[in-house]
Design a protein that fits this description.
Layout (H helix, E strand, L loop, with lengths): L21 H6 L17 E5 L6 E4 H10 L3 E6 L6 E5 L1 H18 L5 E6 L5 H16 L3 E7 L8 H14 L4 E10 L2 E8 L4 H20 L5
Parallel strand pairs: 1-4, 5-6
Antiparallel strand pairs: 1-2, 3-4, 6-8, 7-8
């Protein structure tokens, strides 16, 4: 069996520059990291962005030299672009900013809980107070409360009674939640939505009320002639 002759590929020039500290930074990477950095970037040319570089398109060797000159890393942030986009910055700082941004996005996308409370148009006092107590608990926990009166059959004739009930409910919950919308009739349901009040809003309202009372007393004070 004849063996094929060995033909070595082209060697990297011995005088080729490598940014200092790149091996140290790359050693800090793990398998979950999705951003290629430094020698991991295979593109021939890249677009540099950021505040610490002159933005534009550079050959990869020149981009690596720019990163080396600032003792930073060349980080691939948009591999699908043409040419790929890179940022020159410290890799550990870049990962910290990514984690911080992900945490902020997660906090913003936290699912809002909405609790529903159903009434009939002729709900008795005991049932009303029972559901009021539950609504207070929901609002204290930070959930929204969607309350509605369901009109079954001919009970739609009592829609004014249902509206009065919902407005009373909102008024009784004024200390714990704010009314997002007035009663709205949709099909067989008349609905209101209440949002929990933020911590400190009670103190602010009390302060505003006391300020208003003080102003009213001053306005009513007879002037000396």
């Amino acid at each position: 069996m004849n063996k094929k002759p060995y033909r070595p590929g082209p060697k990297r020039p011995s005088n080729a520059t490598r940014p200092r500290g790149r091996n140290r930074k790359m050693a800090g990477k793990n398998d979950q990291d999705t951003n290629a950095i430094n020698d991991e970037i295979r593109a021939r040319e890249v677009r540099l962005v950021g505040d610490n570089v002159e933005q534009g398109i550079y050959p990869i060797d020149e981009a690596l030299k720019i990163a080396e000159g600032q003792e930073l890393d060349l980080i691939l942030i948009a591999p699908q672009a043409d040419p790929p986009v890179c940022r020159v910055m410290d890799y550990q700082k870049f990962k910290f900013q990514q984690r911080k941004h992900a945490k902020e996005q997660k906090a913003k996308s936290t699912k809002l809980v909405v609790k529903e409370i159903r009434f009939g148009p002729q709900t008795d006092e005991h049932d009303y107070n029972f559901k009021l107590k539950h609504a207070i608990g929901f609002l204290k926990e930070g959930a929204k409360v969607k309350s509605y009166v369901f009109f079954k059959g001919r009970s739609i004739l009592f829609k004014e009674q249902g509206e009065v009930l919902l407005l009373r409910f909102a008024n009784d919950l004024e200390e714990y939640g704010k009314l997002d919308q007035m009663p709205v009739l949709e099909g067989k349901r008349m609905t209101i939505m209440l949002s929990p009040k933020k911590p400190g809003s009670k103190k602010k309202e009390a302060k505003d009320a006391s300020t208003g009372d003080a102003s009213a007393q001053q306005d009513n004070t007879p002037s000396e002639e």
